[in-house]
Amino acid sequence: MKTGDRICALKEEKDALVLAHNYQRPEIQDVADFVGDSLELARMAESATKPLVVFCGVLFMAETAKILNPGKKVLVPVREATCPLADQLTPGMLARARADHPGAAVVLYINSTAACKALADVVCTSANAVGIVRSLDAPEVIVAPDANLAAYVQSQVPEKRIIAVPPGGHCYVHQDFTRQDVFSGRERGDTVICHPECRPEVQEASDHVASTGGMVQILRGQPPGRGWTVLTEREMGYRLRRLYPDQVVHVRDDAVCRDMKKTTLRDLLLSLEQERYEVVLPGETMENARGAIQRMLEAGR
Ligand code: 13P
Ligand code: SF4
To answer: Which helix (H) or strand (E) segment is 272 a member of?
Structure first.
C-alpha cells in the first residue's frame, strides 16, 4: 500500500483528525482532513470530537490545539518543527515590558510559546490582530513578538500606541521580501498580496495585506485567469492553485519555512502508527494560556 493510502486507513482505524497548516508540504495537505490558517486550525482543534488529533504544522500550533481541547490526545509528528519567530520572545521579556508600560494591554501573536501565552491578556493571529487590538479599552498595547505585525496593527489602529516587543522581532521567511518583489508582481500585471509578517514598506506597496486564510478568501470567486503575486511561504501557492485552478498564482520558490517542511508523509504515518509525539504541557501553563486564547476566539464569535 502507498504511504498516503496507509495514512488514510490509519485515520479511519484510529478515528483520528489530521490538521495541516497552509505551509505544509503538498502531499501532507492532500491527506489532511482540514487545511487552514492559524485561526481556522485553532477553531477546528477546539471543536474536534475525535479522540486523536494529529497536527501537521509547527509546535506552537499543536500546543494551542492541546490547550483548547485538553481531553484529546494531540500528536505532533516532528517535535523539532518549531517557529523561530515564537522563540524570539521569553516570559521574562514580556514581564519586563509589562513593568515598563503599566496599564498597557498585552496582545500576543499566536506564534509564541505556551509559557508566553500564559502571561498575555489576549492572543491574536494575523487574521484578527487589528480587530482584537481595536476592541480593547487600553490606549497602549504591547504586541509581541512580530514587529512587522505590530507595525501593520499600528497603521490600521492609529488611535492607539502600539509597542512592539521585542522591537526587531520577525519571521526570517517574510522579512526577506522587499518592495522589489511587489514591483516584479506589478510588472507581470498581478495583484499583490503580502502577509502582515512582511516589512512595513512591503505592506504599504502591496494591494492587500492578509493572513493565509485571508488570501484564500480574496481569491474566492475571482474571474478566471487573474494573476496574483503572493508574498508568503511557497506552499501557499500550492494551496491556492489547488483551490482555484483557474487563477494564476506566483510565489517565490525560495520563500521556504524550514520548520514547516520538516514534517514528511512518512513522519505523519509513523505518528499515526505509534501515536507519537504526544503534546504534553504543565497544567498551570495550559490553564493560564487557555484564557488568553479563548478571549481571542470569543472576540470573533
Ligand atoms: P497564518 O495565521 O496567516 O496562517 O500565518 C501563520 C504563520 O506562521 C505565518 O508565518
Ligand atoms: Fe514561524 Fe515564519 Fe515559519 Fe510562520 S513562516 S511558522 S512565522 S518561521
So the answer is: helix 265-274
Residues lining ligand 2, Cβ inside 6 A: 58, 83-85, 111, 171, 173, 197, 233, 257, 259-260
pLDDT tens-digit readout, 4-38: 999 999 999 999 999 999 999 999 999 999 999 99
Residue 211 beta carbon below 6 angstroms from any ligand 1 atom: yes
Query: Is the CB of 37 inside a 6 Å radius of any atom of ligand 1?
Result: yes
pLDDT of res. 299: 87
What pLDDT, on the 0 to 100 scale, is given for residue 95? 96
Q: Domain 177-250 - what CATH class?
A: alpha beta
Residue 242 CB contacts under 8 Å (≥ 6 apart), including other chains = 29
Torsion angle of C-alpha atoms 275, 239, 170, 218, degrees rounded to 10: -130
Give domain 3-81+260-280's CATH number out of 3.40.50.2000, 3.40.640.10, 3.40.50.10800, 3.40.710.10.
Answer: 3.40.50.10800
- The count of other CB atoms within 10 Å of the CB of residue 102 is 7
pLDDT per residue as tens digits for the range 75-117:
999 999 999 999 999 999 999 999 999 999 999 999 999 999 9
**Domain-by-domain residue ranges, the chain?**
3-81+260-280, 85-170, 177-250
CATH 3.40.50.10800 fits 85-170, yes or no: yes
- pLDDT for residue 301: 65
Q: What phi and psi, each to the nearest 5 degrees, are found at residue 264?
A: -105, 170
Identify the pLDDT of residue 259. 98
